[in-house]
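TASK: fixed-backbone design
INPUT:
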C-alpha cells in the first residue's frame, strides 16, 4: 500500500481529517504503517477512539482496489494533502481534507478565489445578483467557488461560465451521487472550466450532515466569501462562520428589510460583514483596484500599503525566499500572506518560482 492509497483508505474507513492524521503520523510516521497497527495501538493516539480504530483495522483492501478502479473510470484524480498540487488556500485550514477527489483541474491561479453562496430557494434578486457578481469577478481573474446546490450556487457557477472564467464546485456527496440530479450537466461544464471536488468516497450519499463539512471547503478554497442571499437559518451562514474562523473576508449583499430571504445577509452586515453593492467593493478589499489615471506611468511600488503589504514586500529581494521563511519572518497569518503575495504578483512586483519561492521582478 502506497502513502496515497493509505490516505484514501483512511478517508474511506474513518473520515480522518488533517488534525487526527497529524497525530497518527506523529506516532506511526508513515500513512501505510497505520494499517499494520492493532486496535490497541491505534487507541493510544489522541483523538482515535474505539470506533475509528475498529473501522481502520477492519478495512478491506479490496474496497480500496474497487474505489481506485471506479475513480479511474469516472476520470477522477485523487489528490492527497501531502501532494504539491493540493490547493494552497485549503491546505492550512483546521481539519483540511486528507484527500480530494477531483474531476477537472485545480490550477495555481485558483488561489485568487471568491466563494459565493446563498439560499437554495433564492428570489429573482438573489439569483440575478449572484450571477452578476460571479460573472464580473470571473472576468477580473477570480475563480468562483460554490457548492453546486440549487439556487444561488447554480447561478454563481453559471455566471462564471458565462464570463469564460474558472469555477470550482464542492460537493457534499461522492461522485457516484451527483447532487442535485438536475446539475449533472452543469457538473460536466464546470469540470471543463475548472473542477468539481469532493472529499467524500465515491459512493457517499448526499446526506444532510455532509453539507456543513462541504461548506468549510468552499470557504477554505477562497480568499473571501460573498453571501448573496440567506434566510435566518440558511446553510450559507454556516459557510460564513467557517470563513470567519479561517480568517477569510466576508461580504454580504443587502436585501429588503421585510424580506425573510434577506434576514441572514442583513444580519451579517450588522455583525461586521462588508456591505457590497458593486464588484469594486470586493476588488478594493484585496487591493486590486486599477491605479487612478493621474498615477499611471509611475513606479508600481507607489501604492504599496505602509503596513503589512509593505513589510512583506521588504522581505522579498532578488534572492529567492520560500513561503515558509516569509510566514516565519512576517508574523502574519497564512490567508493574509497569500492574499498579499497574489496582489504583488498581479501587479508584477514579484514573481513566484518553483517550490513556492518568491523574488522581486526585474
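OUTPUT:
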Amino acid at each position: 500500500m502506497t502513502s496515497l492509497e493509505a490516505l484514501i483508505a483512511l478517508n474511506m474507513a474513518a473520515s480522518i481529517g488533517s488534525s487526527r492524521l497529524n497525530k497518527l503520523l506523529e506516532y506511526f510516521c508513515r500513512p501505510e504503517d497505520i494499517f499494520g497497527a492493532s486496535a490497541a495501538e491505534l487507541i493510544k493516539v489522541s483523538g482515535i477512539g474505539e470506533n475509528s480504530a475498529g473501522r481502520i483495522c477492519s478495512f478491506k483492501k479490496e474496497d480500496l482496489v474497487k474505489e481506485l478502479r471506479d475513480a479511474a473510470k469516472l476520470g477522477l484524480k485523487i489528490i492527497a494533502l501531502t501532494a504539491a498540487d493540493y490547493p494552497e488556500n485549503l491546505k492550512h485550514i483546521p481539519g483540511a481534507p486528507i484527500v480530494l477527489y477531483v474531476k477537472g483541474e485545480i490550477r495555481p491561479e485558483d488561489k485568487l478565489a471568491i466563494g459565493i453562496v446563498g439560499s437554495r430557494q433564492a428570489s429573482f434578486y438573489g439569483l440575478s445578483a449572484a450571477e452578476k457578481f460571479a460573472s464580473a469577478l470571473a472576468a477580473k481573474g477570480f475563480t468562483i467557488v460554490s457548492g453546486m446546490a440549487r439556487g444561488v450556487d447554480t447561478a454563481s457557477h453559471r455566471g462564471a461560465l458565462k464570463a469564460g472564467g474558472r469555477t470550482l464546485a464542492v460537493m457534499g456527496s461522492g461522485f457516484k451521487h451527483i447532487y442535485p440530479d438536475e446539475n449533472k450537466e452543469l457538473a460536466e461544464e464546470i469540470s471543463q472550466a475548472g473542477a468539481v471536488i469532493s472529499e467524500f468516497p465515491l459512493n457517499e450519499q448526499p446526506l444532510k450532515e455532509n453539507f456543513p463539512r462541504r461548506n468549510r471547503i468552499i470557504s477554505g478554497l477562497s480568499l473571501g466569501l460573498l453571501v448573496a442571499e440567506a434566510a435566518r437559518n440558511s446553510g450559507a451562514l454556516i459557510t460564513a462562520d467557517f470563513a470567519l474562523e479561517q480568517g477569510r473576508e466576508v461580504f454580504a449583499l443587502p436585501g429588503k428589510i421585510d424580506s425573510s430571504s434577506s434576514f441572514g445577509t442583513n444580519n451579517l452586515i450588522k455583525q461586521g460583514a462588508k456591505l457590497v453593492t458593486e464588484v469594486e467593493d470586493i476588488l478594493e478589499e484585496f487591493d486590486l483596484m486599477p491605479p487612478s489615471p493621474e498615477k499611471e506611468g509611475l513606479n508600481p511600488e507607489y501604492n504599496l500599503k505602509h503596513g503589512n503589504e509593505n513589510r512583506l514586500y521588504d522581505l522579498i529581494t532578488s534572492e529567492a525566499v520560500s513561503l515558509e521563511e516569509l510566514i516565519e519572518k512576517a508574523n502574519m497569518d497564512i490567508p493574509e500572506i497569500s492574499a498579499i503575495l497574489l496582489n504583488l504578483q498581479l501587479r508584477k512586483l514579484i514573481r513566484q518560482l518553483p517550490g513556492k519561492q518568491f523574488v522581486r521582478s526585474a
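COMMENT: DSSP finds 17 helices and twelve strands in the chain.
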